[in-house]
Amino acid sequence: MAGKKKTPLRKCIMTNEMKPKKELIRVVRTPEKEIVIDHTSKKSGRGAYISSNEEVILEAKKKNAFSRHLKMDVPEYIYEQLLEEVAKGKI
């Protein structure tokens, strides 16, 4: 009775869409109070997921969405890194 494995779903903080975890980008506030992009989705800390779409990331930057979800100011360079990686197709 080996069943099909369930795909973990997560909600994008901007679009509120439930998507497979691998299709989203995770940004984490670590226990050391650092904000990092988590490519492995395994770092400890409070995480927030966002769609790998340039418009969605720009909207999150405009509305300061990560700061609300992570309960900490998010540096500008985090948004720049996200945009760079999406543009290069890394994510």
Brief overview:
The protein is α+β, with helices and mostly antiparallel strands and 91 residues long. The chain has three helices and five strands.
Describe the model:
By secondary structure, the protein is α+β, with helices and mostly antiparallel strands. The chain contains 3 helices and 5 strands. A 3-stranded antiparallel beta sheet has the order 4-3-5. It is globular, with a radius of gyration of 14 Å. Residues 10-82 form the YlxR domain. InterPro entries: YlxR, YlxR-like_sf, YlxR_dom.
Reported by name, the CATH topology is Hypothetical Cytosolic Protein, Chain: A
Beta percentage is 15-25%
Q: Give the name of the CATH architecture.
A: 2-Layer Sandwich
Number of DSSP E strands: 5
What is the global morphology? globular
Mean pLDDT: 91
| Biggest β-sheet strands, sense, barrel | 3 strands, antiparallel
Kindly report how far apart the N and C termini lie: 35 Å
Task: Sketch the topology as an H/E string, one letter per element.
Answer: EEEEEHHH
Poorly predicted tracts of residues: none
Number of helices: 3
Radius of gyration, CA atoms, in whole angstroms: 14 Å
Helix/strand/pairing category: alpha+beta
Question: In terms of quaternary structure, what is this?
Answer: single chain
Question: What CATH first level would be assigned?
Answer: Alpha Beta
Strand order of the largest sheet: 4-3-5
Organism: Evansella alkalicola
Domain YlxR: 10-82
Protein name: YlxR family protein
InterPro entries: YlxR, YlxR-like_sf, YlxR_dom
